[in-house]
Design goal:
Layout (H helix, E strand, L loop, with lengths): L3 H14 L7 E5 L14 E4 L17 E7 L2 E7 L10 H4 L1 H8 L4 E10 L9 E8 L28 H13 L5 E7 L8 H10 L3 E3 L3 H9 L3 E11 L10 H25 L1
Parallel strand pairs: 1-4, 1-5, 5-9, 6-7, 7-8
Antiparallel strand pairs: 2-3, 3-4, 5-8, 6-9
Bound molecules: hypoxanthine (HPA).
Length: about 270
Amino acid sequence: MLTFDDYREGASALSEKLGGFRPEVLIILGSGLGNLGDRLTDPIVIPYREIPHMRFSTAPGHKGRFLAGRLGGRNVLMMQGRLHIYEGWAAEDAVFPVRIAKLIGVESMIVTNAAGGINTGFKPGELMLISDFIKLNCVNPLIGPNIEKFGPRFPDMSKVFDREYMAKFRAVAEAKGENIHEGVYFYCTGPQYETPAEIRAMRLLGADAVGMSTVPECIAARHCGMRILGITLVTNMAAGILDKPLSGEEVIEAGNASSERLSSYVEEFLERM
Ligand code: HPA
């Protein structure tokens, strides 16, 4: 298990590589959504492999590096590529960057992801503000000795996603003429896509979208008191809704197709934040 000293070592290495730059917001970029990084002029680039105790990204469309710079009038730290549990990383590894960001003073997190639409009112290419999540499996970054310096043994999860941030992001999208959805994200570890029976079960349980990321990071971020905005891009309809198989290529392509639009919303959200 990682100890608090390991997080501290990771945080000091990150801080050192950032020089005097002090990020306020951590932005985690989902599949195909990595080009928000292009909006930073002269970013500080830090490959994950240069941070002690940190794992690296192996998923397609995930570069595996931090980018730091100014965006929307804020100092941001971006993860161009996240760490997924399906890559073989432990849950605590997947949330390591969130915790070291907190240790260097980051108090807010924006997470984006690609997900399958379970709600049949959704269409690929549409955005959903995450209002809550469902995680019924045992994967959990907080299992193990609690690190009190991050948060309590039994943290409250009754409002994981910040209501003020949600309203502001919605206002940004509406000002651009887009009405976005709001809904519940169901977390599956993957890497296989779900079965149609699983999707029907998730719908009965109240889920609107399904994906293989985000929830571990949000649990760790709430544990240490960060404010969170979660945005899902519906890249495909979930298994069994349409009569066609799901593919990773389709997800990346749909991510790329919406990346510019979502990036512009995030930038404007940062201005209003
Ligand atoms: N299921 C799980 N994860 C996903 C999906 C999906 O349909 N689409 C994008 N990520």
